[in-house]
Amino acid sequence: MSTHTTSTFTLDYVKTVGLATNQIGRGFINPYDVAFSRDGRIFVLNHCDSARKNLMRVGIVDLDEEEYLGEFGKGSGTGDDQFNSPVAMAFDSQDRLYVTDELHHRVTIFDASGKFLGKWDTKGSGDGEFNGPAGIAIDQQDNVYVVDQHNSRVQKLTTAGEYLGQWGEPGDGNGQFNLPWGVTTDSAGDVYVADWRNDRVQKFSPEGKFIASFGESGTGEGQFHRPSAVAVDLQGYVYIADWGNERVQVFDANGAFQLELRGQATESRWAGDYLNVNPDEKRTREMSNLIPDLPPHLNTPHHISSQTEPYFWGPVSVRLDGQGRLFVTESNRHRFQVYQRS
Amino acid sequence: MSNQDIALMAHLMRRAGFGASRDELEARVEMGYEAVVEELLHPTDPQNLPDDIIRRYHTEQAEMRLADGAAAYWLYRMITTRCPLEEKLSLFWHSLFATGYNKLNQARALVNQIEMFRRHGMGDLATLLVELSKDPAMIIWLDNNENHKDSINENFGRELLELFSLGIGNYTEDDIKECARAFTGWTLGNAEYMAMRAARDSIWPYSRISWFYEYREADHDDGEKTFLGETGRFNGQDIVEIIVRQEATARFICTRLFQFFAADEIDEGGEKTIASMMKTYFDSNHEIRPVLRTLFNSGYFKSDEARFARVKGPVELVVGAVRMAGSYHTPTQGIEQVARQAVYMGQGLLQPPSVEGWHEGIEWVDSGALVERVNFVAHELANVENPGVRKIIDRLAGEGVFSPEALVDRCLDLMGPMEVSEETRASLVEYVAHQGDLSLAGHQQGDDAEKRVGGLLSLASSTKEYQLA
After folding, report:
1. Contact at CB, B59 and A281, closer than 8 angstroms
2. Domain limits at B55?
3. What's the structural domain count of chain B?
4. pLDDT tens profile B222-251
5. Residue B347 to residues A234, B369, B467: CA-CA distances in angstroms?
6. Is residue B42 part of a domain?
7. Which residues contact B174 (CB under 8 A, 6 or more apart)?
8. Contact B59/A49, CB-based, under 8 Å?
9. How close does chain B come to A94, measured CA to CA in Å?
């Protein structure tokens, strides 16, 4: 099944992984990001709503069999293996996982088994200090880029936490930010920042020199409403989570619009297991139209997604795995959808 | 600008909103009373905390899986709106057309219902009642999804007449049946699946799926019906058109509006005001906005006897205190706990105890609820870090040295103005007197002088008088 396209660039839907849960173990709770260990396991960051803060954790799954392989993290709190508002994750070349927490003003480092290794947690606006760390990316040289949202800047650090540099200030000009969120790097080492409340993505050199800006406010092609995340593949295609428009847009390396995804989730293995043991729900579900036409007052992306289960709802993160597959993580639907190039 | 003008404007803003700071009152007095009424009646630019900000920093309000997140979302709206009557009137309709989470397990449908009240709450009653009848939350709440052509369910039809429009005694059992027949086929999309998920409180596999209205023509009884003496092949819309023409409906709606906005008890002057509101209702083709205009501009509403003649409802109390304190104007962890505080006081937003709504007036204040009310407001106003409290302190700082009596009088003035008994005033004076006169000259944020002010505001908020609007 191919998505709508205006060029030869197409993406095929692969599958959906996830299930809502109110407990520990299999399932996700408001997942915010995924990261891929070197052995191909998928680490899923459970941000959790305020009623389930005690279940904050990182879950581990595999894609092919959708096995739930384990989890670590012990809910909400100030302990080294606890969180408050975890936002994003990234692995370095040594398979160490870096997790940001915007309310603890912390980056916590774990190994791939979930063992705590260290943390950077000085709140402030000085070098190496954070005020609301959000997105995180680690390039091929192990430079760590952290979006320091309330300081309106990106900080660059070593994996040991040594400060290397920073750029950004409040505003809407080139190199300025308004509540930035996600970040990624491309194969050349350039840095892309989802400048959330400026409705654009900005591209910088590894030293923070402004290179380009994608997008403007709106709902059309090439327009954004609060983009939350960005990913770039080896060919330079740029995938942007257009969070407020509840979609993903893809551009080529020159910024030319390629296509948009609205989402087409199907039943994950876990969802199938649930419905198989709840046949009454399964029967009435099968009678239902889950992509309905809605009355005008509900015809906004957020409302549509709240009523249209296959569509993205709260797409907070886009990430590419080692095979170039696109993972779109949906906070409000407790799942991620996977796509791949045709 | 006279003290009487300020006091009258404060009265209007307590009733048509959730109270106002002294800065806002002074600006509104400059506008003039009737101009302020018109502004309140024409909400255009609420400038409330934006949805994108709320959803980014409050996951529970993005997903709205549970009632607490949805209630907190509405609280933010009430706390930060510049169009307070829009929210206050929505709270009125929510109280009258009480729909609750406990049966629905679908908070977003309730939030959508409140948004419908914003869209139609000041317009003509017929449109509002038709939209209410199409509202998915109401459909599930009163079982209209079970109201079928060949097997009617009277629940919605009965409450539409008894609790939402005519009032008991103004219709027959046959009218209820005919009304129910007219609303057959008014259901929600994917009704069978959605009703099952609601009954099971299912969030699986991928969280809630929100609801939308659907008309199933094949399930509608299109036969002839006789309702309130009129006969025809009525659909729900026709029934509503008949309802809104009834004098009993005008009396019911105007009385409830009067009790919510003017006074808990209805005296002779109140009866006359309600009669004026009813005349406006019919003169304006059943529009609510002109009815409210008649009420707010009436001599009765402006009179001394209408002042402090209502017990503040818990949500009014909470929102009023937070607006005065200036807290929770940006995303703040714990906003759900503020919603919970209103629950502890007896009024959970989106969680009315039954379709009859809440028992208002003096019943709000039992001893347990009173402790919760006093503690919450005192906590908000004692915190001298809160921006609204700082504004009060800043005003006092520019006004020289205060004797204990002058300090009490000025703080009561800036908190309302509040009218208190001599006994209450004496108690407040006694509280501040033992530390002598107060000067805020050269004060530091959070120092003892400021804390004395915070303490006094906190104590004043615990008085009987503060519990009244």
Report:
1. no
2. 6-30+32-302
3. 1
4. 999 999 999 999 999 999 999 999 999 999
5. 56, 10, 15
6. yes
7. B226
8. yes
9. 32
